């Protein structure tokens, strides 16, 4: 869910109707507030990991352990690509202003492109693993 919201929000800055100069002037100031979303998403990821580990090792879940393990691995995989994420989270106003409009566009696009890959190959399969574990666990307990 978090990645999808990020995708829509950050991707909106790539819209062709936004003049490059406006994107350059607005993006950093908008991103200052937006990057605080990490304070919401990080606890959600930690909670997901803790609950998957509890279900994997407690013996209380009737779901196959591979599904819980998949949920754990895909949740860790959500950090992909860590280098790019840290680069975006550490963006300073000085570094942003030093970018040309083309470099600024490429910087924003790098996040959007990585996020598409993360949504497709990490978040969606991880979500499926956890949903399948919950559904199978509930079905087997009856």
Kindly describe this structure.
This protein is mostly helical and 142 residues long. The chain has one domain. Helix content is 80%, strand content 0%. It has seven helices and no strands. The protein has helices at 2-11, 20-34, 38-58, 65-77, 82-89, 93-97, 101-141. Helix 4 (65-77) packs antiparallel against helix 7 (101-141). It is elongated, with a radius of gyration of 19 Å. The two termini are 30 Å apart. The model has no long low-confidence stretch (mean pLDDT 91). Keywords: Membrane, Transmembrane, Transmembrane helix. The chain crosses the membrane at residues 37-58, 65-82, 119-139.
End-to-end distance, in Å? 30 Å
Could you say which structural class the secondary elements and strand pairing correspond to? mainly alpha
Mean of residue pLDDT values: 91
Number of helices: 7
Q: What oligomeric state is this?
A: single chain
Write down the Rg: 19 Å
Strand content: under 5%
Helical amount among residues, as a percent range?
A: over 70%
The description of the largest β-sheet is:
none
Number of domains: 1
Beta-strand segment tally = 0
Helix-strand string: HHHHHHH
Which geometry do the CA atoms define? Answer: elongated
Unreliable parts: none
Keywords: Membrane, Transmembrane, Transmembrane helix
Transmembrane segments: 37-58, 65-82, 119-139
């Amino acid at each position: 869910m978090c990645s999808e919201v990020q995708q829509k929000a950050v991707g909106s800055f790539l819209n062709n109707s936004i003049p490059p100069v406006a994107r350059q002037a607005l993006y950093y100031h908008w991103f200052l507030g937006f990057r605080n979303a990490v304070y919401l998403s990080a606890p959600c990821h930690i909670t997901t990991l803790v609950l998957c580990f509890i279900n994997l090792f407690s013996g209380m879940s009737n779901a196959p352990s591979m599904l819980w393990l998949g949920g754990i691995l895909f949740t860790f995989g959500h950090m992909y690509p860590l280098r790019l994420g840290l680069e975006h989270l550490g963006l300073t106003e000085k570094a942003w202003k030093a970018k040309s409009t083309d470099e600024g566009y490429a910087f924003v696009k790098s996040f959007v492109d990585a996020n598409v890959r993360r949504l497709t190959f990490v978040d969606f399969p991880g979500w499926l693993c956890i949903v399948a574990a919950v559904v199978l666990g509930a079905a087997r307990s009856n």
